[in-house]
Write a structure and sequence with these properties.
Layout lengths: L26 E3 L2 E3 L8 E10 L3 H12 L4 E4 L43 H19 L23 H7 L6 H7 L11 H7 L2 H7 L12 H11 L3 E2 L3 E6 L7 E6 L6 E10 L15 H7 L3 E11 L7 E2 L14 E2 L1 E4 L5 E8 L6 H17 L7 H4 L1 E7 L3 E4 L2 H5 L2 H6 L7 E3 L2 H4 L3 H20 L3
Parallel strand pairs: 3-4, 3-8, 4-5, 8-16
Antiparallel strand pairs: 1-2, 6-7, 7-8, 9-13, 9-14, 9-15, 10-12, 11-13, 12-13
Helix pairs in contact: 1-7, 1-14, 3-5
Keywords: Signal
InterPro entries: FAD/NAD-bd_sf
Pfam family, one: FAD_oxidored
Length: 458
Amino acid sequence: MRFSQLVTALPLWFGSVNANQSWAGWAGLGDQTKWSTPCCSPNVVDVDIAIIGGGSGGIHAAIHLKDADASVSVIEKKDQIGGTQKHIPTLPPASSLTLVLSFLRTQTWSSGIPIPAPDDQQQAIRAAAQAYTKNVLSKYGWVDQGFLVPDPVPEELYLPFSQFAENYNFSALLPTIAQVDWYIGNLTTLPALYGIKSLGPGLLGSVFGEFILSSTGNSRSLYDAALKELGSSVLLNTTILNIDRHSNSTGVTLLVSQPGSAPKTIRARKLLVAIPPTLKNIWSFDLSKQEEAIFSKFSSLGYFAGVANVPGFNSTLTNMGALTPFNQPIIPGNHGFITTGSPNEFQIGGGFDSGDVTDEEGKDLVRKNLATLAAVGAVPADAAHSVTFPYTSNHMPYNVRVTAEDIKAGFYAKLLAPQGSRNTYWTGAAFSGHNSALVWNWNEGTIVPGLKKDLGLK
């Protein structure tokens, strides 16, 4: 099974309670778990590889490992795999350089009428893209393969991205990056490493060419097919109760639970962690001091995505700061209201500089933006009150990263060093970049070969 190139925001995952005890009379009631007098042992499943996280990275690895005749068990907290696919909100290739002036520093949206960029501006953007390709991407050929940062770290990789862009004469490209790769952070302070990772050669080629999407227009079909192929190997609505990577020298042991079922023990020769490795996410892991020291460095942004239904409104509006550096929208802010093709329904994507964002804060941001638009007549007057949210997904933690000082101190060499130790491998955006194509490159270039070698698979 082949995965096509999509851009995906990975879902939140974290463990639940730590449970080193006998089990019996167990019943799962929502998020509550009850125990009674011990009477029996949980079910036991033996597999080659246990995979924590059924998002883009975990499912891709599971398919490849299954194709290599490995037995896998995918543990996913949500009721579906694949998380929420976040397509890049962009215009068709022929007009990808068109600017939509719709959001002012005063929080006043315009009517949203597309304003074509002057020919000289389009030429400047293309010239900047050529300079970026020739002088930057050719220099850092590993950018689409993972955070394979040189040691010692080049000073320019921890400079602010805007200064780096000025040094290499591609500043005219920054507004395009701000719109296409939503939301990577403030381009005036973002370390250059993350700016480069956000627009590697693969994505740059798509921006100035075309994107590869599902032929059905439904990226969910990709994961529906994966779920069919993996079958009972995928455990949905599953909470991790305990992980033991100490006592079993030949593998790992996980204790998991699903609503309405007795706890299950999964014994695996190897563990693949495919969730954002923030301490809040993996607090129930038996972390070593080295792992804890590494993962404690991570912070994250916030991203709230979904579908908003706005009665009486059927146009697309893109949020572009008219008076902000590089036309970045003011944050917190939505990328825009991008029509889905269904009446009154729009893709939304709210960016936050903090990873600690609630669902209600995400919805309130949409309402606030609609109120601003209503004040200038761009949307119906009651839009902020009539909007509903048929589907939403909170992507906290989103775009995990470290400080420029940590990059300078060789953080990524330290992050990649423990791969395979304690029978554990790590994958996902934190190790590759926040783009499914990059995660899949990381899997195929590093993770899957490492696991296959350790397990003696061809």
